[in-house]
From TrEMBL:
This is ROK family protein. Belongs to the ROK (NagC/XylR) family. Gene3D superfamilies: 3.30.420.40. InterPro entries: ATPase_NBD, ROK. It comes from Kineosporia corallincola. PANTHER family: N-ACETYLMANNOSAMINE KINASE, ROK (REPRESSOR, ORF, KINASE) FAMILY. Signal peptide: none annotated.
C-alpha cells in the first residue's frame, strides 16, 4: 500500500502544501495548508517558504515529492526560467531542486517538478471532471490560458493536436496569440473599448445575465472564438472531453453555448469538478508515475 504523497503547489501568490492519498478508488487530499508568497520575493525567501511547507507535512526521509510550478520553468532540471514575465524573477537561473533538497533535514527521494496547468489537468483526469475519459483537454481561463493535453494519464507536450509544449496560449487566433482574445485582460479591454467602463469579468458576466446586450455579445464573440481556435486541436488530439477551470470558468453558463458553437464537433464540455485539489492530486500522480 502506498503512503500519502507529499506535494507543493506554487501559484502566483501562494504555496499550498498537501498530502495526497492515491490508494483509494478515488484519489483525495488528506491534509492541506496554504502560505502567501510574494511574486517579487527573493530566491532565499521562496525556498524558505517551500521548506516551511515541507516541514509542516513532516514526511519520512527518502519520500518522493511532487512540486507544481508555473512557467517558464525547466521542469526536468528544476531550474527557474522566469525572465521578463513579472513574477519570480529572482528564480531565473536558480536551481530550486538543489536548494530545496539541501534545505530538508534529511535526504528525500525524487523531487519531481511539473507545470501547474499539467498538474490541474492530471488531477481532473484522476479524480475530477475528466475521470473516465482517455483523452482530455483541460484549460484554466483567467489571467491567461493554461492547458493540459492528457492522454491515458500522461500530460503531453507534443503530438497531433498538441500546441508547442502543450500550451494553448501559443495557439494563434486572429493574427495574435489566443490570450489576446480569451483572457481576463482581453475581456476587460474589449468591454472598456465598447462602453468606456472598466469592469472585471464577473461584473461583465452579471450584466450579460441581466440582459446587457453589449456584455452578452462580447462574451458570445469571445468564447465562440475560443471554440473555433480549439476545434482543430480537439479533432487532431482526439479529445473526448474539454474541461474548463480558472476564475473565468465561474461563468460556464455563459461560456458553454458559444464555445460549443465554435467547436462545431462532438466533445463533452464540463466545468472543473475540484479546481482547488486537482493540481495537488495531479502533482502526486505525476510524482508516482516514473
Amino acid at each position: 500500500m502506498r503512503s500519502a504523497v507529499p506535494v507543493l503547489e506554487v501559484g502566483g501568490s501562494h504555496l499550498t502544501a498537501a498530502l495526497v492519498s492515491l490508494d483509494a478508488a478515488l484519489p483525495s487530499v488528506t491534509r492541506m495548508r496554504r502560505w502567501h508568497v510574494e511574486p517579487d520575493c527573493s530566491a532565499a525567501s521562496f525556498v524558505q517558504t517551500l521548506l516551511e511547507g515541507a516541514a509542516w507535512l513532516d514526511v519520512a526521509p527518502g519520500t518522493d515529492w511532487g512540486i507544481a510550478m508555473p512557467g517558464p520553468f525547466d521542469y526536468d532540471a528544476g531550474i527557474g526560467r522566469f525572465e521578463g514575465v513579472g513574477k519570480f524573477e529572482a528564480l531565473n537561473g536558480f536551481d530550486v531542486r538543489a536548494a530545496f533538497t539541501a534545505g530538508l533535514p534529511a535526504a528525500p527521494g525524487r523531487v519531481v517538478f511539473l507545470n501547474d496547468a499539467d498538474a490541474f489537468g492530471l488531477g481532473e483526469y484522476a479524480a475530477g471532471a475528466a475521470r473516465g475519459f482517455r483523452r482530455a483537454i483541460c484549460l484554466t481561463l483567467g489571467t491567461g490560458v493554461g492547458s493540459a493535453f492528457v492522454a491515458d494519464g500522461v500530460a503531453l507536450s507534443s503530438g497531433p493536436g498538441v500546441p508547442p509544449d502543450g500550451e494553448a496560449h501559443f495557439i494563434v487566433w486572429g493574427g495574435a496569440e489566443l490570450e489576446e482574445t480569451v483572457s481576463r485582460r482581453a475581456i476587460r479591454r474589449g468591454y472598456a473599448e465598447l462602453t468606456g467602463q472598466h469592469l472585471d469579468v464577473h461584473e461583465i458576466a452579471a450584466l450579460a445575465r441581466a440582459g446587457d446586450g453589449v456584455a452578452a455579445a462580447l462574451l458570445e464573440r469571445t468564447f465562440r472564438a475560443l471554440g473555433e481556435a480549439l476545434s482543430p486541436h480537439v479533432r487532431d488530439f482526439g479529445a473526448e472531453v474539454l474541461v474548463l477551470g480558472g476564475s473565468i470558468a465561474g461563468s460556464f453558463d455563459l461560456i458553454e453555448p458559444p464555445l460549443r458553437k465554435g467547436l462545431a464537433r462532438d466533445v463533452v464540455l464540463r466545468v472543473a469538478a475540484d479546481p482547488e485539489h486537482a493540481p495537488l492530486i495531479g502533482a502526486a500522480a505525476h510524482a508516482c508515475s516514473g
